[in-house]
Amino acid sequence: MHQQIKTDPNSGEKICRCFKRCGGCQLQESYAAQLQRKQEKAERMLAKFANVQPIIGMDTPYHYRCKVQNIYGTDRSGKIISGIFQSSGKKMVTVDDCMLEDVHAAPIVQAVKACMRTFRIQPYDLRTGTGLLRHTLIRTSAATGQVMLVLVTASAMLPAKKNFVHALCQAHPELTTIVQNICPDGLPLTLGDRNIVLYGKGYIEDE
């Protein structure tokens, strides 16, 4: 059984301009209202078996996602854009900043787009099978402060590879490692079996 949940239009501040269009958030309501909803659901399901303690929420419920994936494309003028899939999973919604993603992610994505323009690297087009960069994956560690960038490409060829990586590291010295993942086919946002370490150790450490 599926339950459709409608949010109160006055339940929270609408801080995301992409709400309802992207696939990142289903409900946008105040954090207190979210916790209350989850508490009520937990009590309905578990109260007859055990005493349900109050849910402990986060102090700051934003920028907590340590794994960030972005797809790339071009607009009608040919400008390189980035974003995520719509909730339908078919079209891209342009997103320059997300309140859920780690704060390091958005500036790094902007740097990737700038380097793509500089070194003439085209985003991969699923319809035509042309282009190179399929998507990027950024992982961060709150415990160690380390940041990893994965460039998922359709082939191993990366034009001006050394200069591309150097430009990214100059723009974002917080990058701990950069890895190229080769994914010649497959569904969007999937990873291939082959990795090439372009900078650093090829992994980050967490606790």
Summarize the structure in words.
By secondary structure, this protein is α+β, with helices and mostly antiparallel strands. It has 3 helices and 7 strands, in the order H-E-E-E-H-E-E-H-E-E. It folds into 2 domains: 12-61, no CATH class; 67-199, OB fold (Dihydrolipoamide Acetyltransferase, E2P) (Beta Barrel), CATH 2.40.50.1070. Strand 2 (80-85) and strand 3 form a beta hairpin. The radius of gyration is 20 Å and the shape is globular.
Topology record:
Elements: H1 31-46, E1 67-74, E2 80-85, E3 92-94, H2 105-118, E4 133-140, E5 147-153, H3 161-171, E6 175-182, E7 194-199
Parallel strand pairs: 5-6
Antiparallel strand pairs: 1-2, 1-4, 2-3, 4-5, 6-7
Helix pairs in contact: 2-3
**Helical residue percent band:** 10-25%
CATH top level label of the largest domain: Mainly Beta
Q: What is the averaged pLDDT score?
A: 87
CATH domain topology of the largest domain: OB fold (Dihydrolipoamide Acetyltransferase, E2P)
Structural class: alpha+beta
State the gist of this model.
With 207 residues, this protein is of the alpha+beta class. It has helices spanning 31-46, 105-118, 161-171, and strands spanning 67-74, 80-85, 92-94, 133-140, 147-153, 175-182, 194-199.
